[in-house]
Amino acid sequence: MSLLDKPIRKKRIVVLGAGFAGLTFCRRFRSEFAEIILIDRQNHHLFQPLLYQVATAGLSMPEISRPIRSILSRRKNVTVLMDEVTGIDAENKQVILKAQKEPLAFDYLVIGLGAQNDYFGHPEWEAHAPGLKSLDDAIRIRQNLLLAFEQAEITEDPETQRRLLTIAVIGGGPTGVELAGACAELARVILRRDFRRIDPEKTKIILIEAGDRILSAFDPELSAEAEKQLRRLGVNILKNEPVQSISKEQVVLKDLTIQAGTILWGAGVRGNPLAAKLGIELDSKGRIPVRADCSLNQHRNIFAVGDIATLKDGLGQPVPTVSPAAMQMANHVARIIRDEIECRTQITHNRPSFVYNNKGSMATIGRAAAIAQMGRLKLKGYSAWLAWLFVHLIFLIGFRNKAFVLLQWAWSYFTYGSGSRVISGMDRTFRIKPFAVNPASRVDELAQMENQNTGSGI
């Protein structure tokens, strides 16, 4: 039997994370000489750019998520494992999983685990200021927002009402700006006719930014335009105000203390903690430094892609932590691994460098309000908003999701309504989190229930 007649063992590629990077790799990599094992602790892929709309009751969860197995059902060489990675043994080429007795061996490892919220050394802030990285985060925020209005409706204390109708959003990046704009529309447009004892239009939304301008990654002209659009929606913007501390319903700044029934975090992210399991030096944000081909310096068969990686591309430009960059990196790594496997060669040190094709940045502020920067082209207002709608529909996975999101957007635009405002998960005693108010009010009875019951809402 000649060398060419000998059967070839399929190379095993293990992919960690089914976000934009991991899923793109699995969909684009094609070789009969390899098998792929995709591992994620969730069973769904999440279209994260629209997560803020779930958090602010604009869209429902199924409209921006889809089961991973459904997306990859036709890829026979891809096995999906719903499991949690607890360790990576880079030297022995193994991944340790929570539900598996034996380590999972690999020939190539692609790490696309993304990022998590960064509270800048104050993890205790998370309990009072949830960030927005998962469907669970969005559910928690939507619960807080909707219950705040319900609690304000049943209380008789004006001071408590004012606190409940104050929303503080920390961070003037895209997430913070989108949350602030969506909260303003929810209160002043969608809910304005729904209550009798409170006026939702009097809701105070405060956007807090530590720097001297919001959306600092954009051109200063567009940042100023975004600020103007937010103020038009009634959002109060505080700049050059780093947060000193956060506690229950309270944000302390340098010279100001804000009492807020809802506090939202959008101020920063850092790499997934699993990166520390590699035993290599990480950057200040806990991300994995990689070579220009997206591989690790110490382990050329391990790649990091997406938000968990930090690198300068082949042109020396820092690659931003955005979804287009994650997908481009995944495509680049897929080509490298396919070429090495199909050429039956050893891992080479002359791989092509990744070059990021920056197609622009967008941020939506509210109804028919957005900014977009694509090279020298700058869009703002209605035209930027239309471009934002088109781009997000294109990248949303699945025809059903595209159709439902488009229908929901059209309904909201023409009727000024929002169809995802149901609060569920309440117990039979109609439990609502109480606040100290007038002793003669109904809320005292609810306060006694709070001591006896637990529950959650959507």
A few lines on this structure:
Helices cover 29% and strands 21% of the residues. It is α/β, with parallel strands linked by helices and 458 residues long. It is elongated, with a radius of gyration of 24 Å.
Commentary on this structure:
The chain is of the alpha/beta class. The chain has 2 domains: 9-41 and 83-118 and 270-342, FAD/NAD(P)-binding domain (3-Layer(bba) Sandwich); 123-266 and 360-415, FAD/NAD(P)-binding domain (3-Layer(bba) Sandwich). The protein is 29% helix and 21% strand. It has helices at residues 20-28, 51-55, 68-71, 135-154, 158-164, 174-190, 220-232, 323-342, 382-395, 399-415, 443-450; strands at residues 11-16, 34-40, 44-46, 65-67, 78-82, 85-89, 94-97, 104-105, 108-111, 115-117, 166-170, 204-208, 235-238, 245-247, 250-252, 257-259, 262-265, 269-271, 288-289, 302-304, 309-310, 361-366, 369-374, 377-380. The strands form 8 sheets. Strands 5-2-1-9-20 form a 5-stranded parallel beta sheet, with helices on one face. Helix 1 links the parallel strand 1 (11-16) and strand 2. The protein starts with 10 loop residues before the first strand and ends in an 8-residue tail after the last helix. The relative contact order is 0.14.
